[in-house]
Amino acid sequence: MDSALLTIGLPIPLAVIMFGLGLSLTPADFRRVRQNPRAVTTALVCQLLVLPVIAFGLVELFGLSPLLAVGFMILAASPGGTTANLYSHLFRGDVALNITLTAINSLIAVISLPLVTNWAIGHFVDEGESIGLQLDKLLQIFAIVLIPVVIGMFVRRRSPEFADRMDRPVRTASAIMLVLVVLAAMWTERENISDYLAEVGLIAAIFCILSLSIGYAVPRRLGLSEDQAVASGFEIGIHNSTLAIAMAITVLGNAQMSIPAAVYGVLMFPIAAVFGMIVRNRKVLSGSSSGVAAEAADHRGDAR
Known about the structure:
This protein is mainly α.
């Protein structure tokens, strides 16, 4: 990567975004795990174990080029995005569970993301050779991701009113900076961008649909509530594409690896909206059916 704007500029908006996440978190978000241990564990297993396996299968099935394959695995290993909280709220999910999962995932990603990335580079780029976990890269991710979150949480603890006032300005500033950096990344790859979109667009859409569906269906099959399943679906389906892009460009210095996350970041919002409408309508229909069944039972009781 020969663009100073990308290699130097991207850590700034990412740090701002993670600081903004920290402003919204409290220690209670982590303590809430004790209240819903099964829901949290189920979502984390899907996020950390099931999705990377599915992503690997899709990469092999579609035969992605090595650098795009690495980028796709980085995306699969990235935690849920904070936008999942908004979607969960709109479609009647357990928002408290989303906040807890976002908080835990953001910390786990400091370790899991470089591990998966390192393995993907060894498998796809170096033809199976293990290159070992690079400590300097791990420390770089730690500094960019975790430290701003901790600072944000400290600010909220010291001054909740200030944290509330800063929420919108921080989000706005980080969004503007991120758009500028992503546009710069696209400019560096402008000659190949249409080919990349054609190559990863379908696989990104399929992976998004599978992520949302698995995140919803597995909790339901395990007996968790509808609200918890909806929250889990959005948390697992709406990946933190910003973090994946930062990993590819800032840490690995490769714009091509950021393409899967950039494409996914565009596709996941409309797909997640459609998914939300489907599960909400399903919930309404299920409630109506239950009501009809209960009314029929009442009538039978009256007849007797």
